Amino acid sequence: MYVHLGEDILVRTKDIVAILDKETVKSSQSMKELLESESNKIVPLAKGDFKSIVITVDAVYYSPLASGTLKKRSTKLAIQEF
Fold first, then answer.
1. Span 39-76, pLDDT tens digits
2. Mind telling me which NCBIfam families this protein's record contains (predicted)?
3. Is the residue at 82 inside a domain?
4. 14: domain range?
5. 3-state secondary structure (DSSP) of residue 31
């Protein structure tokens, strides 16, 4: 199944590695370093400020949707797969 991340972008649930809140990323030095090393894979979906970061196998998405919303969507879809 797929999760809508915003701006007409759908990602397969099995490709999602992590869904992170913006505040969590800002407070973690190791996450900042990870995002800097993966800067060529960043896909900004928010026109303004982003609310969450979704790390997948192929890309890092800056999503305008809250991490809680994305988690609920991915959980519902994962349950429906079975």
1. 999 999 988 899 999 999 999 999 999 999 998 888 76
2. MtxRegRemB (NF046065)
3. no
4. 2-77
5. helix
Count how many Cα atoms sit within 13 Å of the Cα of residue 3 in the half-sphere of its side chain. 28
Is residue 39, in this structure, part of any structural domain at all?
yes
The total number of structural domains that make up the chain: 1
Q: Alpha-carbon distance 52 to 60, whole Å?
A: 10
If 0-12 CB within 10 Å is exposed, 13-18 middle and 19+ buried, where does residue 59 land? middle
Domain presence at residue 73: yes
- What type of residue is 51? K
The per-residue pLDDT for range 10-45, each reduced to its tens digit, is 999 899 999 999 998 889 899 989 989 999 999 999
